[in-house]
Amino acid sequence: MSQSYDIKLRIAYRYDHPAGSHRTLLRILPRSIEGQQQLLYGQVTTDPPPDFRLDDVDFFGNPTTEVTHEGRLSEIDFLFEGRVLRRTPRDGLDLSCALSDLPRAVAQIQSIRAPSPHHFLGPSPRLRHESEIAAFARCCTRPGMSALEAVEAVSHALNDLFDFDSSATEVTTTPIEAFRARRGVCQDISHVMISALREIGVPAGYVSGFLRTLPPEGQPRLEGADAMHAWVRAWCGPDAGWVEFDPTNAIRVGLDHVTVGFGRDYSDVAPSKGSLRSEGGHETRHMVDVVPVEAKLTA
């Protein structure tokens, strides 16, 4: 099955005092994924227009837009508007290997290209070993589990453990801080899940994207639909490959999810990051609208 979405994203910055020398790297253009997702059309723009712009692709294949604004600005908006076709990911038989066999399966992978599981096992810029999260991950598993069963068990355990609370954390909150508080947003819950999976030998990465903001009739609205969303991809062996889970909502990723990019953690897919010259504070707002093009799914 498939579903098309019209998507609008606006990231707005307002400064207490005009800021100059803006250099910003944006990752807000949804990527096309063979067999799963296609960007039908769309573009990234800024208001005001940049003095310099470079569109490129990063190591993991995520579209990037680098922009420079030389003048002093009191406000700036980064925008994406376009249409994406999303197809239902395969969700059939459990083809994953045993959790205990996963280290050997990873070792047999010779490639270190972007999709290789080797990039998603060790520490990364935002994630490091945490003994408390490691102990939690071990408690979620049992002997004889498949890799897929282990990933699902961790996802559901975290959903039970965490309360979704948009005011409890900030973008700089560490996974262990969120884990101890048992509260946070999709970024926090996904980071904890990635850390937990790596602790038990499952390669895991971070996915940035969107959730539909209008749920199908009779279904509840998913947590995290008001802004850009985050979830987890995990490598479950050579036959199963990469599978994706949304621990914030305790579900497998499906038609409701639109991928923008993926990497080792949030630092690899932050929607905007850069530098500027400024004094005083600033305000940031994210506005997202993901609307189905048709009311009914197409076969």
Brief write-up:
With 299 residues, this protein is α+β, with helices and mostly antiparallel strands.
Structure, explained:
- The structure is a single chain.
- The protein has 299 residues and is of the alpha+beta class.
- The protein has helices at residues 102-107, 131-140, 147-161, 175-181, 186-199, 266-269; strands at residues 2-26, 37-47, 52-57, 63-69, 73-87, 163-164, 183-184, 204-211, 229-235, 242-246, 251-252, 257-263, 272-277, 282-292.
- It is built from six helices and 14 strands.
- Strands 1, 2, 3, 4, 5, 13 and 14 form a seven-stranded antiparallel beta sheet that branches. Strands 11-10-9-8-12 form a five-stranded antiparallel beta sheet.
- The radius of gyration is 19 Å and the shape is globular.
What descriptive keywords fit this protein?
14 strands, alpha+beta, 5-stranded antiparallel beta sheet, 7-stranded antiparallel beta sheet, 299 residues
Q: What spatial form do the alpha-carbon principal axes imply? A: globular
Q: What class do helices, strands and sheet pairing give?
A: alpha+beta
Radius of gyration: 19 Å
What fraction of the residues are assigned to beta strands by DSSP?
A: 35-45%
Number of helices: 6
* Strand runs, count: 14
| Helix and strand pattern | EEEEEHHHEHEHEEEEEHEE
Helix content: 10-25%
Distance between the termini: 5 Å
Largest sheet: 7 strands, antiparallel
Q: What's the average pLDDT?
A: 93
Low-confidence stretches: none
